[in-house]
Amino acid sequence: MNGLYRPRNDRMIAGVCAGLARRFGMSPGVVRVLFVLSCLLPGPQFVVYLVLWVMMPDEDRYMAGAR
Predict the structure, then answer these.
(1) pLDDT at residue 67, rounded to an integer
(2) I need a labelling partner for 37 at 20 to 30 A (CA). Which of 30, 47, 57, 65 fits?
(3) How far is it between the farthest Cα atoms of the chain?
């Protein structure tokens, strides 16, 4: 399994959707569309995105820790 990190490439805003897509073997575009559609529903989607942005390491930090 791949780790959960924000990649340098494929970022639109912070790389959260791209990181989730890599982790679960999906296309980043699909994850982005699912996130946008989920924002139409009531709930804390933006808060979850912000928390993931802060909690997920970027690719450089993840690779440095994996060595």
Answers:
(1) 67
(2) 57
(3) 41
Phi, psi for residue 5 in degrees, rounded to 5: -150, 165
Q: Does residue 33 carry a pLDDT above 70?
A: yes
How much is the pTM?
0.84
Contact 9, 60 (CB under 8 A): no
Give the residue from 22, 31, 28, 27 showing the smallest Cα distance to 4.
Answer: 22
Q: Which residues contact 57 (CB under 8 A, 6 or more apart)?
A: 5, 6, 65
Residue with tokens 């933006």: 46
CB neighbours of 33 closer than 8 A, spacing ≥ 6?
Answer: none
56 and 5 Cβ atoms separated by less than 8 Å? yes
